[in-house]
Design a protein that fits this description.
This protein is an all-alpha fold and 553 residues long. It folds into two domains: 1-41 and 332-553, Orthogonal Bundle (MetI-like fold); 48-328, MetI-like fold, CATH 1.10.3720. It has helices at 2-33, 43-48, 54-87, 93-99, 108-119, 125-134, 142-168, 171-179, 184-212, 216-221, 228-235, 240-267, 286-314, 333-340, 342-374, 379-389, 396-406, 425-447, 451-459, 464-493, 496-501, 509-515, 523-552, and strands at 35-36, 39-40, 88-89, 281-282. Strand 1 and strand 2 form a beta hairpin. The longest helix is centred in the N-terminal third of the chain and has 34 residues, at 54-87. The relative contact order is 0.12.
């Protein structure tokens, strides 16, 4: 009886923690949407589909088509680039692979600032250059700007997934199809493409979720558009009842769009084997090699342009809204202010300590949950896994609003305290949002751990705690470090939850960049953006070092 209680207590506690902090906020907001003046009512839901609030229904359809269009555009860009970089040898090929991952290194607020105000907005560098050179007034705005930024930000998902799938594809399958008389096009259609279906669906699912929950791109390019994330942000204080309905709708829409993709992905059968992948095929035509080289150079330039623009403008002394193509004078004043004035330094320190606290929580809870899942499979453990991964499917807007409403009053989950309006709600949101990252990374590490190693250590005289400390943890270190790195980077770059939950005492750097975007001298937000990029770069270097040390141990 005592042994059974000892085994079931950690599982019950994990279920309680996850149900309280992950599931209950969503349930509480759903219950709030089903009430009117304190009594059960469907009035708010009926209003959604009536003529009372036509913007809300338009926001739903607009959010769905923008998400689907973003998936299509990202695939249209990412899949050909993945095939080109993996299957062909051409000039500058070594430069293309790392350049394709550059969009992943741009935090959302930095990326949208670079696109809208530095590069492609009405007064950006590229439109201004076009006016000077050709007299053409062409710039990005509205839904077009949102879709272009989404395509830039999310096509690396398709590059990574498709590239990995091509690495696993046995070249003998394609050679067999060719030997049976199939053309290259038919071999691609009948052999290669079916093998890529799981990868395409996986990348599509990630792009779909990120596009549906996108907030910074619409906020800059289409602030007056009817989109669910913008409606939630604009109505959060004036009409929380409607926001509860919209938040629930956004969560349901995410699941409704994601479920068929995940179902199809699980049903898709990859024809990849453990054979040798195809070697890159050289582009032999001189003219074609030249054209491909120029195209690759242009692609690399476009991909690195946002980073270069931020760096150059951070030193600009006269980067005004109607300024020249490039600054005519340069200065270090912006960086001097960033490092000497408390108004600039405090947002970065706030982001660092909140991200650090959230990452420590994620690593501890992720290790605990992954250990429970490693010890066996049961209905309770499956529920633990589902709840731990649930934040992955919820947009940041939904998670932030749910927490704001749940902790607006005294809550048992906060020890009877009110967390809304305090500095602690935002790091809690970071921790919940990024928990799936540490759980997945630690699960992958546990999957390579043989349970007999612990038994062998105990058989040699070590107790369970010593075996865990001397055997298990060193083997798990690469997975733990990778999960911590992902969680820390995600928390540092988080903007959507930050702008909904921050208070003046914990103003994060992303919101500070957003607040300074109207400053005529854009060097200040550019310098802050560079500072954020440097902080993330240092995190990556330290994280990679820890991963290598863990593998060496």
């Amino acid at each position: 009886m005592l042994d059974s209680l000892r085994r079931s207590a950690p599982i019950a506690l994990a279920l309680l923690v996850l149900a309280g902090y992950v599931l209950w906020p969503q349930v509480a907001v759903l219950m709030q949407s089903l009430q009117h003046d304190g009594t059960p009512s469907f009035a708010s839901w009926r209003a959604l589909f009536s003529t009372d609030h036509p913007q809300d229904l338009r926001a739903l359809w607009n959010s769905i088509w923008v998400a689907l269009a973003s998936v299509a555009l990202s695939a249209l860009v990412g899949v050909p680039l993945a095939v080109l970089s993996r299957r062909f040898a051409f000039p500058l090929r070594a430069w293309l692979a790392p350049a394709l991952l550059l969009p992943l290194l741009l935090p959302p607020i930095v990326g949208v600032l670079a696109f809208k105000q530095f590069l492609f907005g009405e007064y950006g560098i590229v439109p201004h250059a076009l006016r000077l050179a050709f007299g053409v007034d062409l710039f990005l705005d509205g839904y077009a700007g949102v879709l272009v930024l989404h395509a830039y930000s999310f096509f690396p998902f398709f590059v990574l997934f498709v590239h990995a799938a091509l690495e696993r594809l046995d070249a003998a399958q394609e050679e067999a199809a060719r030997s049976l008389g199939a053309s290259r096009a038919r071999s691609w259609w009948r052999v290669t493409l079916p093998a890529l279906v799981p990868a395409l669906l996986g990348a599509g699912a990630l792009t779909l979720l990120n596009s549906l929950g996108s907030f910074s791109a619409p906020l800059f390019f289409a602030p007056d558009a009817d989109l669910l994330t913008l409606r939630i942000y604009n109505l959060r204080e004036d009409d929380p009842q409607r926001v509860a309905v919209l938040s629930t709708i956004l969560a349901v829409a995410a699941f409704a769009l994601l479920w068929p993709v995940l179902r199809a992905q699980s049903d898709a059968v990859s024809s990849a084997t453990k054979g040798t992948p195809a070697e890159p095929r050289a582009v032999r035509s001189g003219m074609l090699r030249g054209l491909v080289g120029v195209a690759v150079a242009a692609t690399c330039l476009v991909l690195v342009l946002p980073h270069l623009a931020i760096l150059v403008l951070s030193f600009g002394a006269d980067t005004g809204a109607a300024g020249s193509v490039l600054p005519s004078a340069f200065t270090l004043d912006h960086y001097v202010r960033v490092f000497t004035e408390d108004a600039f330094r405090r947002p970065l320190s706030n982001s660092l300590w909140m991200s650090g606290v959230a990452t420590v929580l994620d690593v501890a809870i992720g290790l605990w949950i992954a250990a429970l899942l490693w010890r066996g499979r049961s209905v309770a453990r499956r529920w633990i896994e589902v709840l731990a991964l649930l934040p992955l499917a919820l947009p940041a807007t939904v998670i932030a609003f749910n927490l704001l409403e749940t902790f607006a009053g005294p809550s048992a989950l906060a020890g009877g305290q009110v967390l809304a309006g305090t500095v602690w709600l935002l790091p809690l949101c970071y921790a919940i949002r990024n928990l799936p990252l540490t759980v997945r990374a630690t699960q992958a590490a546990f999957a390579q751990l043989d349970p007999q190693l612990v038994d062998a250590a105990c058989g040699l005289g070590a107790n369970r705690l010593a075996a865990t400390r001397r055997v298990v943890l060193p083997l798990l270190m690469p997975g733990l470090a990778a999960g911590a790195l992902l969680a820390l980077l995600s928390a540092l770059s988080e903007f959507t939850a930050s702008i909904l939950l921050y208070v003046p005492a914990n103003l994060p750097i992303g919101v500070e960049i957003f607040n300074r975007r109207y400053n005529r001298a854009l060097g200040e937000p550019a310098a802050l953006s560079c500072l954020l990029l440097v902080a993330q770069g240092l995190v990556v270097l330290v994280g990679n070092r820890l991963v290598r040390l863990g593998r060496g141990a």
